[in-house]
Amino acid sequence: MDKKTTTKSKKLQIVLAKLVDDVRVIDPGARDLGIGPKFEAIKRPVALVWIRSGTGADLEKAQKFAPTEGYTVFVYAPTERNPLDRARADIAATA
Fold it and tell me: 38, 13 in Cβ contact below 8 A?
């Protein structure tokens, strides 16, 4: 978790994020010549909004759920314009 909150009434944006295994094509090959594509394994960051205007109680619920699915909990101020992109960047920085 990024930040802890001490008050249950403070409004928070709670986002869950994790890295998932994925592949990307690095060379499409030439099928007509019998040369197949080449792939590269990557870790892709994914994020989801738990709640956009939550409280400390919502944060506790997110912290309880997140480990069961492999997520990390991130907390941002309500003024954060794009919490999903920020969470993806934060989780990618941990890799």
Answer: no
Q: Give kind and range of the element (H or E) at residue 88.
A: helix 83-93
Q: Return the residue matching tokens 């989780």.
A: 91
- CA 77 to mean position of chain CA atoms: 17
DSSP secondary structure string for all residues of 38-57: EEEEEEEEEEEEEEEEE-HH
pLDDT digits (tens, 9 = 90+) for 41-89: 999 999 999 999 999 999 999 999 999 999 999 999 999 999 999 999 9
pLDDT tens readout for residues 69-79: 999 999 999 99
For the chain, the 3-state helix, strand and coil shares in percent, each to the nearest 5, are 30, 40, 30
Taking a C-beta distance cutoff of 8 angstroms, is the pair 83, 39 a contact? no
